[in-house]
Amino acid sequence: MDANALFKLTHGMYIVGAKNEDRFAGCVVDGIMQVASKPLILALSGQNTSFTKECIEKNREFSISVLGKNVNPFVVANFGFQSSRNVDKWAKVGYHVTDGLPYLDDCLAVIRCKVLDSVLFESNTLFTAEVIDCNNRNEGEPLTYSDYRTSFKNEVLKFLPEILKNKEK
Q: Three-state SS for 11?
């Protein structure tokens, strides 16, 4: 079996936010899709080792910021290469809070979701969630996981030394 065939599936790139007790958690994901239109239902796949996933399980809601192709690569590095368990990722980016959840200022759209159900797998948890609110923020083309893998990842990796240096502090 050649699991690389799965990279042919199209996915967007998103920042998912969630409440923590004293600050917000967040991570970069590509595993989100709309699965129903009445009501509006999304599916989100979160890694079981993710602190953001733990916060979503606890609070039963999350935010989504849809990334555009023009997003600063630091945003993806910041939310992708460190854990909200140890770092306040939101303190390093422009964001706003609506109804108690964080959203990037520089994104194409924002979506607020309430968890309906979850299914635990060995590596990930699949959440189904109802869209409570959503709005367009900026014009532009969405960043896809294919874009990330083919070209954008090199720009993101340039920020890795800065992220790793901050992890050591």
A: coil
- Closest to 13 measured CA to CA, from 36, 40, 32, 41: 32
CA dihedral 99, 102, 135, 156 (to 10 degrees): -170
Question: 75-87: per-residue pLDDT in tens?
Answer: 999 999 999 999 9
CATH of domain 10-142+149-168: 2.30.110.10
pLDDT tens digit sequence for 25-43: 999 999 899 999 999 999 9
Q: How many residues are listed for the chain in this entry?
A: 169
Q: Look at the block and give the residue holding tokens 């994104």.
A: 107
Q: Where are the domains of the chain?
A: 10-142+149-168
For every residue of 67-81, DSSP letters joined together read: PBTTS-HHHHHHHHS
